[in-house]
Each structure stands twice: as structure tokens, then as C-alpha cells.
Specification:
The complex is a heterodimer of chains A (581) and B (329). Chain A is α+β, with helices and mostly antiparallel strands and 581 residues long. In chain A, the strands form 4 sheets. In chain A, strands 3, 4, 5, 6, 7, 8 and 9 form a 7-stranded mixed beta sheet that branches. In chain A, strands 12, 13, 14, 15, 16, 17 and 20 form a 7-stranded antiparallel beta sheet that branches. Chain A has a 4-stranded mixed beta sheet with strand order 1-11-10-2, with no helix packed on it. In chain A, a hairpin with a 2-residue loop joins strand 13 and strand 14. In chain A, helix 3 crosses helix 12. Chain B is of the alpha/beta class. Chain B is 23% helix and 25% strand. In chain B, helix 2 packs across helix 3. The longest helix of chain B has 17 residues. The chains are: A alpha+beta (581), B alpha/beta (329).
Chain lengths: 581, 329
């Protein structure tokens, strides 16, 4: 491993990429953090956690320059990209010459500030000369890292929590403290480096949220949790997880992806002004009207919109259902028990109107697990996703540690569908056919109803890939139409009428549950069954806003594709590969 | 002169097949890999350098005639000669001539140096039937010495940690090339899977230098194998066999490891991009140096190559065969 220069960051990238073991990733990060100056450290965190800003160069230009630089027609560059599945990697493989030079000796911070930021102030000719200089100087791995720095995400399995743990170990601090310092808005640079490494917490950043505590899915029988009275139960709302920060007379609403979304929810901001300063509340933003939650699709009509009209606010009203309090009177309450925090929260919200924009998420009363299971069975008719279980003694933790917060979701709807199209995957699954289109029977025909790209094991994917290549009917670029043969059980969370889909229905959150090798094409579900389910679903959740939701979904998904790995505000949408586009 | 039939690539004027995938009366074989050399044909013609490997693979009793490099052999109305392909030991290109018209079938080949076999030789022709396993510009091999240096660095880091470094590789050709290359850069003790050692013996018998190797199965039972380099076929990566090693670190040596996606998908610790097939620049170089006006591409996805050659004014098309090249999995 070479020291100094960008080489040490490249070595870190390689180390993170080569292992799937969290302990080894942690060790590699800690090694880097303790060996590099603070400025390099904050830049590394900035890049690894996907905080990078706007791309300084349009992808279209990079492709054009690379094509000329490598002496290849652009269609061949595109064909290469299809095989590789990652544009930065493709360009590196095509252009890297590894001739070395002064630029390879720059540190990460120098490269980020001196080279990448310089692009933002240069004309196209100068930008091109600079990029070509990188291609000449760096080898394939170096170029790959440089391209990732330009934008595109590292995708090496490093979460914000992991970074915080490694940094805490390198600094000899508490992970929770470091994690908190990394939250909210910050710009990589001297000022933030100083604040991050400072001995004392700096109170100047009033907007800063706390790291979210995430529940784990309950896989075992609920009785394994022990005594029912040791637990709180709440409804698991189908909305957007949000943290409401009220400090210094200002209100900040943060999404789970650490995105500041205050301006998108003006009614929440207004309602929160009733709270005393120095308050931080955790809850779920849901579409809400006349005392009941509406399907998530209603909220989608708002989050896709940059210009929030009065009409949008009227048609998709929201409420923040508060279930936790993390700070009151400026004091961090996270170490207190769930029970204590609940009592504080109830007192805090007591003066507010009971059915207002800001309201308490009620506890679900139960005296036995059987009784709770019965209540959970009513989830669908309440338009909730199931039950949350929280140990009364639980502090508010960071990340997703198991044991005290569980989500006990209801079983999804299912359909048996036939694979009809397959498309090449991306990233780890590049050059394998992993994105499938599924159809159901409609009379003599098969009608596509869903796309899904997850849920199979690597082994199943390999088998299926070989089968797809041998059973292709037609090819359209990266998409192959295949002989209808294989049947899969798909799970989905909801179904709505859709004018945009040929089938007339849109499935929410479809994913593969099982490969039904025991079933043939004729055993697949019919469109009639799905339509009936759609009508039933609509009558249960009491909403017929499906078409409107479908119309705006496209826009939202497109937006989500540019987002970092953690899809934050949009992570409840139907799956969209964030690497795409 | 040559066309694809259900039994394989057929030369009517000479009444023989090249690397047929069904039993035929007369088969000319480019090399001993199983997608090219299949059992059951009545008579075989192959490079003299590869005869012992062919017998090992197809049976000691096959009727096989070995032909020296460049020596001509009359078959029906055509003249056939074999020329080194540099893919594995004994791998040949087949040159077929009739009345001044020359066709060359490359079989599998590479242009990079390989201490275990005779280097590739350019053969001028009118029609070139070339393999196109790695026919995209993203496949540019690094210098062999640089990749081997990476392998040795990995082996050394495993040694320091007291772990076994298990390198998965094809048993015939790639394994011996790796042994010969690693053996000049490292003195690590090397063990091999039982399917590799007989091939090593054949290479050694031909005078090819390979470092000393021992079979995994010859190691004392009951104790786990510690710091060593182990070469094995990918099929050995099953719990039963892997149990013999102490905290094994695993790697795969294949041209497909060039891409991060394929590397990660195998769930091994490392992937080394080293191949016995031509990379993109060498493929284009070979086509140009052959002087061929017509190019037929076999193996894998040759659509991009064919389109590029057509754009450059060559008569190129894809030829559907059952050759698999370097298996991705």
C-alpha cells in the first residue's frame, strides 16, 4: 500500500471493495482515518457516504471525450457500458493509461478542492484537457476512483453508521457522539474538519438532527419477545420517517436520508411552531384526512413536486404522527427509557389539537400476544403496514441494532406471474440478466404487470441468466424477450387501478418471493384475479386516487434515480435502481 | 471452404471437421479443452506438441496423428497445416488451403507470452475464423508480470496471516501457466487439487519447467493445511473439500475478473484478470496482421466486433458454434 497522495484513498477503496466482512471494512476505514489529516478524513466521509454535490461535468460530455480519447465509436462505448454496468468503471477500463504524473501525488483533499472543484469554473476545453490528463496519469483503479469522485457513488457497502463507528474508534470517542456530529448539513473543508475533531460539541449548528434508530423486521414468533407488558405496540405507518427539530425559533424537518424537507411540508412547519424551542421529535409523515390515514400514493403526488401549489396541499394533506422525543428543553433524552420518553412526548403534545397536523401516534393497547396478533390482522383495513414493537426499557439507539425495536409487518399480497422480459443488471450484477418483467394470464394472452429485480439468490440468478440467454425470442438493446416458461411468486404491498399500465393495474413494491419451479405458465394468476384484488384493496383503504398517484409516480421515480443509495424520501416507492439513468 | 454443420465446422473438399462437437470420421483438433476436443471420432489430427494432452483427455487408445508446426498435410483436395496459437500447450491454428485460397481457424489463442507453450504466430489468410471471447474494448489485459505480482502479494499477505491462499483456475493450461509464472517470483509451498497434478506431470514430461507441487490429498490427514498456495478448479469450492484448510482466502484467475461486477458476484476474496484468450487490442491486431478480407467470429457475444469490422470495410459476420471460450462461471 502506497502512502500519501490519492493512492491511500484508492487503497482504502480497494480494501473496502474486496471484502464483504464488516469487521474488515471497519478496520480499513479506521486505518485510513487514523493515518490521514482531518481534511482528507472529512473529504473521504463526504464521498463514501454519498454526500457529493452536483456532477461538475455532464455524463454526455464525458462519454463523448472518452470515445474520442480511446478512439472508439460512441455505440461501442455504449455496448461496453452495457457489459460493465457502471459508467465510471467503463470509462476507466477504456481510457486509463497509468502513465503517472504530478496529479497522482495530490492528496484526496487537494484533488477534490484543486482538481474536481476547478472543473466548475472552467470552460469545456479546459475541462476536457483536465479529464484527459487524469486518464493519462492514473491506472484503471485510480481512474475508477477518480470517476467515483466526479459523481456516481462508491457503493462499497459503507453506511453512515459504519463510517461513524470507524471514525469514533480512530478518534477514541463514543460512536453516538461522532455519529451525531456527522448528521445534518455540512460542507467538507477546514471548518467542518475542526468541528468534527473538536473536543467539545459545538452548539452553533441548530438544525442538526440525531441519527435515526431503525427497527429490525421480526422474523421469529412474537412470543419469543417474552412478556407482553414489557413492550409498547404502535401502528407501523406507511409514510415517510421524519425528524422534527425545533431550535432557536426555527423548525427543521429531516427525512431519514438526512435530507432537509421542511419546505415541502409547510403545514408541519407551521404546526411545530407551537412547540417549545429545544425540542426534537421522531415520527412518520403520512397523508391524513378527517381523522384517518390515506394510502401512501396520495403522498407521492406531493413529494414529486418542486412547486407546491395550494391545490396540492389541499389534495394531499399530511400529518406528522409523533412516536418519540429525542430532545426537550435542549436536553438530549436518548439515553432515557422508551417509557420515560413516551411520557415526556405525551405531555409535550397534550396542549396541541388532538387531530391536528402534529399529533401523537397512539399506543396500541393489548394484553396478550394473541390479542395483538388479532389487531395486526386488521392492519390492511387501517391502511397501516403492521405493528411496531418497542421494549419499554429501550434507549433511543443509533442505526439498526437488533433486540429492542421490531417491525412486525403483515404478509404481502401475492401473485404467480410469468417472466416475459429480462434486462441486464447493474453494479454487482452487471452483465447478468437480473431485471425481469412479469406477466399474468389475460384470456389467450400474457399481460405484463410488474418489474422486479430482487429476491433471488446468486445461484438462482446464474441459472436463470443461462436459461434467458438460451431462450431469447427477441433482443432490444439490453432487453431480451424470452419464451414464457418460468413462474415466480411475487409479493406486493398494494394494488391500484392505473391508466398508464396496459394491464390497468399497478402493483406497489413488487418483489420476487419464490421461484415456482413446480408451476407452469398455465398455472399463473389471471388478470381477472388481480383486478378483483385491486377493487377489494380500493374498497378496504377507501381511496380511489390511484390514477393520480400513477401519473406522478413516473416523475418521482425519475427523481429517485439521481438520489444516493439510501433513497431517503423516496425509498418507499416501487423499486428503482439508483444506479440507473 | 468451411461451413457449420450440426456436427461442427466442416470442410467438404477435405472431408474433415475442425473441433467437431459430435463424433465424426476425421477430426482436426485445435487444442485439448473439452469444448474443442470431444471423444468418439474415428481419427484425430492435432499438433504434435498437444498429442499427450489429447490422449490424456480423450483416452490413450484414440487414433491420433501429431503434426509438426507448419508441416503440410494433404486431406482430400485441400492442404492443412497447424500453427501455434499460444493458448495452452499444443494449441494450434488450422490453416486450410485450396487453389491459392487460404482459410485460418484460430481456435482459442492469445498473444501474450506464456512460458508453457509455443508462442502465437501470425498466419496470412483470405478468411479468418477467429475466437471472440473477450470482444469488447474494456478487455485490455495488464502485463502478465504485473498481475502475477498482485497474485504473489496476495499469497504473501495470506502467508503472513497464516492462512491458505486458494486460487481457483482452469486445470489445463491456465494452472500450469500460473505455476510457471508464480514459481519464478515466489518460493511459497504449492499444493494442487488432484485434477491438476496429472496435467503438471505431462507438462513436465515435455520439458516445461514448473515449480514443485504436491497434491492436497497427499497431505497428512486430520490436520488442517496452513500457509500455502493451493491451485484448484472452481468446482472444488465446496464445503467438504474446503474444510481441509485453515481460514482459506479464495481467489479466481480468469479474464472475466476484469470487471468489478463479475469479480464481486463470485463472492471470493480476490479476482485476478489473467486470461489465455486474446484481449481486444490483440484481437484487432491479429485480424489486421492476418490480412483477411473476411472475418467470421465465434464464441460469446461478437456483435460489437462484427459491427466495428463492417464499419471499417471488412466483410465480417458471426459464426454460431458450440465453443464456449472461457466459461464465466
Amino acid at each position: 500500500m502506497s502512502d500519501g497522495g490519492l493512492a491511500s484513498f484508492v487503497a482504502l477503496y480497494v480494501a473496502l471493495d474486496e471484502t464483504t466482512a464488516t469487521s474488515e471494512k471497519l478496520a480499513a476505514l479506521e486505518r485510513y482515518f487514523s493515518s490521514r489529516p482531518p481534511l482528507d478524513v472529512v473529504w473521504a466521509i463526504h464521498f463514501l457516504t454519498g454526500r457529493r454535490g452536483r456532477r461538475p461535468i455532464a455524463t454526455r460530455l464525458l462519454r463523448r471525450w472518452a470515445s474520442a480519447f480511446a478512439g472508439l465509436p460512441e455505440w461501442l462505448l455504449d455496448a461496453s457500458y452495457q457489459a460493465v454496468g457502471d459508467l465510471g468503471e467503463t470509462l476507466s477500463l477504456l481510457c486509463a493509461r497509468g502513465e503517472g504524473g504530478a496529479v497522482t501525488t495530490l492528496s484526496l483533499a487537494e484533488f477534490a478542492e484543486g482538481e474536481i472543484d476547478a472543473l466548475r469554473h472552467e470552460d469545456e476545453a479546459a475541462q476536457r484537457a483536465r479529464v484527459e490528463g487524469w486518464w493519462r496519469a492514473f491506472d484503471v483503479t485510480g481512474c475508477l476512483v477518480v470517476h467515483k469522485l466526479l459523481g456516481g457513488g462508491f457503493r462499497v457497502g459503507v453506511s453512515a453508521t459504519l463510517v461513524a463507528r470507524a471514525l469514533a474508534a480512530a478518534m477514541g470517542r463514543e460512536a453516538a457522539q461522532v455519529s451525531h456530529r456527522l448528521m445534518g448539513k455540512w460542507e467538507p473543508g477546514e471548518a467542518f474538519a475542526e468541528r468534527l475533531f473538536a473536543a467539545q460539541d459545538d452548539a452553533s449548528d441548530r438544525s442538526r438532527p440525531y441519527p435515526f434508530y431503525l427497527a429490525s423486521p421480526l422474523e421469529d414468533d412474537v412470543v419469543t419477545l417474552g412478556e407482553p407488558h414489557d413492550w409498547f405496540a404502535e401502528w407501523k405507518w406507511d409514510g415517510i420517517r421524519a425528524q422534527l427539530v425545533v431550535r432557536g425559533g426555527n423548525v427543521y424537518v429531516w427525512s431519514r436520508g438526512e435530507e432537509l424537507v421542511t419546505t415541502r411540508f409547510p403545514e408541519v412547519e407551521a404546526a411545530a411552531r407551537a412547540l417549545p424551542s429545544g425540542t426534537v421529535i421522531d415520527g412518520e409523515l403520512v397523508p391524513w384526512r378527517e381523522g384517518r390515514v390515506l394510502p401512501f400514493g396520495v403522498l407521492q403526488t406531493r413529494i414529486g413536486r418542486t412547486n407546491l401549489t395550494a391545490r396540492a396541499l389541499r389534495e394531499a394533506p399530511v400529518a406528522l404522527l409523533a412516536f418519540d422525543v429525542l430532545e426537550m428543553g435542549g436536553v438530549d433524552l436518548r439515553a432515557r427509557s422508551q417509557e420515560e420518553r413516551r411520557a415526556v412526548l405525551e405531555t409535550l403534545l397534550a396542549p396541541l389539537p388532538p387531530q391536528g397536523v402534529l399529533q401523537l401516534s397512539p399506543l396500541v393497547a393489548f394484553d396478550s400476544w394473541d390479542a395483538l396478533a388479532e389487531l395486526r390482522a386488521t392492519s390492511r383495513s387501517r391502511a397501516v403496514e403492521g405493528i411496531m414493537l418497542k421494549a419499554r426499557t429501550a434507549p433511543y439507539r443509533v442505526g439498526r441494532p437488533r433486540g429492542e425495536w421490531w417491525k412486525w409487518k403483515i404478509e404481502p399480497y401475492t401473485v404467480d406471474a410469468v417472466m416475459v422480459n429480462a434486462q441486464l443488471g447493474h453494479g454487482r450484477r452487471a452483465s447478468l440478466y437480473t431485471d425481469y418483467t412479469f406477466a399474468v394470464i389475460d384470456g389467450e394472452q400474457l399481460v405484463p404487470v410488474a418489474k422486479a429485480y430482487s429476491g433471488l439468490s446468486d445461484e438462482e440468478i446464474r441459472r436463470l441468466d443461462a436459461w434467458i440467454r438460451a431462450n431469447t425470442l427477441q433482443r432490444f438493446g439490453p432487453v431480451r424477450t424470452v419464451t414464457p416458461y418460468h413462474v415466480f411468486e411475487l409479493g406486493f404491498e398494494g394494488i391500484q387501478p392505473s391508466a398508464r399500465h396496459k394491464s390497468g393495474v399497478a402493483l406497489r413494491f413488487p418483489r420476487i418471493l419464490r421461484w415456482r419451479t413446480d408451476k407452469g405458465v398455465h398455472d399463473a394468476s389471471t388478470l381477472g384475479e388481480l383486478t378483483a384484488l385491486s377493487e377489494m384493496h380500493a374498497s378496504i383503504v377507501g381511496a380511489n386516487e390511484g390514477t393520480e398517484a400513477a401519473r406522478t409516480r413516473q416523475r418521482s421515480v425519475r427523481k429517485a434515480r439521481g438520489a444516493p443509495e439510501e433513497l431517503s424520501l423516496f425509498d418507499d416507492l416501487e423499486p428503482a435502481d439508483p444506479d440507473r439513468g | 471452404m468451411l461451413r457449420v454443420t450440426p456436427a461442427g465446422l466442416y470442410c467438404e473438399s477435405g472431408d474433415f471437421y475442425i473441433d467437431p462437437w459430435r463424433p465424426v470420421p476425421r477430426a482436426v483438433i485445435t487444442h485439448a479443452h473439452s469444448d474443442h476436443a470431444r471423444a468418439g471420432s474415428a481419427a484425430y489430427l492435432a499438433a504434435a506438441e498437444g498429442v499427450s494432452l489429447l490422449r490424456h483427455r480423450l483416452g490413450a487408445d484414440i487414433a491420433v496423428e501429431g503434426l509438426g508446426w507448419g508441416a503440410s498435410r494433404r486431406l482430400g483436395n485441400v492442404t492443412v497445416s497447424l500453427h501455434p496459437a499460444g493458448h495452452i500447450r499444443g494449441s494450434a491454428q488450422v490453416r486450410v488451403e485450396q487453389g491459392g485460397e487460404v482459410w485460418v481457424v484460430t481456435g482459442d489463442y492469445k498473444r501474450a507470452a506464456d512460458p508453457t507453450c509455443t508462442p502465437f504466430e501470425v498466419v496470412r489468410c483470405n478468411t479468418l475464423i477467429t475466437e471472440a471471447t473477450f470482444a469488447l474494448p474494456v478487455y485490455r489485459w495488464r502485463a502478465t508480470s504485473a498481475v502475477i505480482a498482485d497474485v504473489v502479494r496476495w499469497v504473501d499477505s495470506c502467508r503472513v496471516a497464516g492462512r491458505t491462499a486458494i486460487l481457483f483456475t482452469y486445470t489445463l493450461g491456465k494452472a500450469q501457466r500460473l505455476l510457471a509464472e508464480i514459481g519464478t517470483q515466489s518460493d511459497v509451498p504449492i499444493l494442487v487439487h488432484g485434477s491438476i497434478e496429472p496435467l503438471n506431470a505431462l507438462y513436465r514430461a515435455d520439458g516445461v519447467w514448473l515449480p514443485p507441487t504436491e497434491r492436497v490429498s497427499e497431505q497428512p490427514r486430520g490436520e488442517r493445511i496452513g500457509a500455502a498456495l493451493v491451485l484448484a478448479p472452481p468446482s472444488a469450492n465446496v464445503p467438504g473439500w474446503m474444510r481441509r484448510f485453515h481460514e482459506p482466502d479464495t481467489a479466481f484467475a480468469s479474464g472475466w475478473m476484469q470487471l468489478r461486477g463479475t469479480r464481486r458476484r463470485r463472492s471470493l476474496d480476490r479476482g485476478f484478470a489473467i486470461s489465455d484468450h486474446v484481449d481486444w487490442p490483440a484481437l484487432l491486431q491479429t485480424i489486421e496482421e492476418s490480412g483477411a478480407e473476411r472475418v467470421l467470429a465465434t464464441h460469446g457475444d461478437s456483435a460489437a466486433l462484427v459491427r466495428l469490422l463492417n464499419e471499417r470495410g471488412l466483410d465480417a459476420s458471426a459464426l454460431a458454434t458450440e465453443f464456449t471460450g472461457e466459461d464465466a462461471e
